[in-house]
């Protein structure tokens, strides 16, 4: 079980690896598409890597609801609970 | 009662790919050409897919024409006469006749008659399915030499104005001759299917629906087609509603659609596992490979698979998609052909190949490059 801080840090690493964005730029209130400029293919890559890292399942239909980094952290946290 | 002892065909212990051929049609479609039909840009398409151009066949060039071009080169490179072929297999989803097969005509054209000839419908996994069957036929003694061809004219089944798949696709053919070998040249095939994702990639309509619409356009618009759907159960394509919205007086010609996100995730996540299983089954590791030749679906899928498989930098990765687009069953032999043309020293080394696509279906094996 990871804390929300740990999930955020882990997610930031995944985003950094996929996009080259600095990990500090990955903040809870940032929108994946609008603030971080992440396209749909990168988003799926991030989702696949997050599933592996956090041991959770993020269904395809859920991905469109993950608009901000905070949405993803909450989803992963709940899925781990 | 004494039962006579049957004679069974003597088996071949080992097989390998003896020769490889390719046919690339000569109409070049650029991203700027594509952007006449969809609202996009060269930069967007390159960034999302890695595709710069696709080759497409002229109206008078058929799947069989392209298959013949690739087959003749493969036979010549293998040093095998067509009369020695014990089977001709064509993987295609774009031969425009439900029957007879493309393979029977091809066998006749190249002089392989009366070799058994049949088509495989396994979409983008079709070439690896063909290798699995060719390998099995030669090792079992059912055939001495087998011609395996992947040939597609995808430009016949696209709608240039839709955005899920059409702009990715190109035409072409690749072929190999498989025969007996002194040493192992084709590792065990890891192949399979997942029909629960039947609707992730496929045609917008059945041929029956196209027929009904052609006969009675108004009837179809008022719901005859929905009855037609019951013939194949409750399965309908995810993107059908989009296509339905586009239905006008024009007859429906079935074209391809995909659910890109589902396919991308499946390809990256599940197919990296299948590729690893093919390595394990062959008793080798990524470090033993000289080349990785995945189905050329999308450069981003290729990049992600390379990462997931942790391929060392010494492995040359086939990236024919940039120039050829996605050519379904033809993509792996076409990509291998380019790889060997640009890097002749790879010949004799081990390549991991994996195909995956509509079905969903997948197939992978490690092979010794011809």
Span between N and C termini of chain A? 8 Å
What's the CATH H-level homologous superfamily of chain A? ACP-like
**For this structure, what is the CATH class of chain A?**
Mainly Alpha
Protein chains sharing the most extensive interface: A-B, 10 and 12 residues
Secondary-structure-derived class of chain B: alpha/beta
Largest sheet of chain A: none
Strand elements of chain B, count: 14
Strand content of chain B: 15-25%
- The domain tally of chain A reads 1
Strand order of the largest sheet of chain B: 1-7-6-4-5
What's the CATH topology label of chain A? Non-ribosomal Peptide Synthetase Peptidyl Carrier Protein, Chain A
CATH architecture field of chain A: Orthogonal Bundle
Model description:
- Chain A has one domain: Non-ribosomal Peptide Synthetase Peptidyl Carrier Protein, Chain A.
- Helices cover 58% and strands 0% of the residues of chain A.
- Chain A contains four helices and no strands.
- Chain A is globular and about 30 Å long.
- A five-stranded mixed sheet of chain B has the order 1-7-6-4-5, sandwiched between helices.
- The longest helix of chain B is centred in the C-terminal third of the chain and has 23 residues, at 260-282.
- Chain B contains twelve helices and 14 strands.
- In chain B, strand 13 (350-357) and strand 14 (361-368) form a beta hairpin.
- The chains are: A mainly alpha (81), B alpha/beta (370).
- Chain A binds chain B through residues 39-41, 44-45, 47-48, 51, 60, 63, and chain B through 47-48, 260-262, 264-265, 268-269, 298, 300, 304.
């Amino acid at each position: 079980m990871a804390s929300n801080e740990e999930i955020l840090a882990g997610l930031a690493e995944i985003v950094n690896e996929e996009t080259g964005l600095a990990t500090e730029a990955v903040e809870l209130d940032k929108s994946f598409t609008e603030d971080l400029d992440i396209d749909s293919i990168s988003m799926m890559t991030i989702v696949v890597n997050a599933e592996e890292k956090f041991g959770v399942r993020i269904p395809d239909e859920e991905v469109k609801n993950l608009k901000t980094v905070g949405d993803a952290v909450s989803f992963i946290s709940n899925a781990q609970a | 009662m004494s039962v006579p002892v049957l004679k069974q065909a003597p088996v071949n212990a080992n097989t390998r790919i003896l020769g490889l051929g390719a046919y690339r049609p000569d109409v070049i479609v650029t991203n700027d050409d594509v952007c006449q039909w969809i609202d996009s840009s060269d930069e967007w398409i390159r960034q999302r897919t890695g595709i710069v151009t696709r080759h497409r066949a002229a109206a008078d060039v058929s799947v069989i024409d392209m298959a013949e071009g690739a087959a003749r080169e493969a036979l010549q490179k293998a040093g095998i006469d067509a009369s020695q072929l014990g089977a001709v297999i064509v993987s295609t989803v774009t031969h425009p006749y439900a029957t007879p097969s493309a393979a029977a005509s091809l066998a006749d054209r190249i002089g392989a008659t009366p070799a058994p000839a049949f088509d495989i419908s396994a979409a983008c996994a079709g070439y690896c399915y063909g290798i699995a069957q060719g390998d099995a036929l030669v090792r079992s003694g059912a055939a001495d030499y087998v011609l395996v061809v992947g040939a597609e004219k995808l430009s016949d089944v696209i709608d240039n104005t839709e955005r899920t798949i059409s702009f990715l696709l190109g035409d072409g053919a690749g072929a190999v001759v498989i025969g007996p070998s002194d040493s192992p040249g084709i590792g065990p095939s890891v192949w399979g299917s997942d029909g629960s994702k039947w609707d992730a990639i496929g045609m917008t309509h059945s041929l029956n629906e196209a027929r009904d619409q052609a006969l009675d356009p108004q009837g179809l618009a008022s719901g005859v087609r929905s009855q037609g759907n019951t013939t194949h159960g409750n399965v309908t394509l995810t993107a059908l509603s989009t296509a339905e919205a586009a239905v006008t007086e024009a007859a429906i010609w079935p074209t391809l659609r995909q659910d890109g996100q589902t396919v991308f995730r499946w390809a990256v996540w599940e197919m990296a596992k299948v590729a690893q299983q093919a390595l394990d089954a062959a008793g080798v590791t990524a470090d033993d490979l000289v080349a990785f030749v995945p189905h050329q679906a999308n450069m981003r899928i290729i990049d992600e698979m390379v990462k997931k498989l942790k391929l060392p930098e010494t492995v040359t990765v086939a990236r024919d998609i940039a120039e050829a687009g996605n050519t379904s069953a033809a993509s792996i032999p076409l990509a291998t052909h380019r790889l060997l043309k640009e890097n002749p020293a790879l010949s004799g080394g081990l390549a991991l190949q994996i195909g995956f696509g509509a079905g969903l279906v997948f197939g992978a094996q490690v092979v010794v490059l011809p």
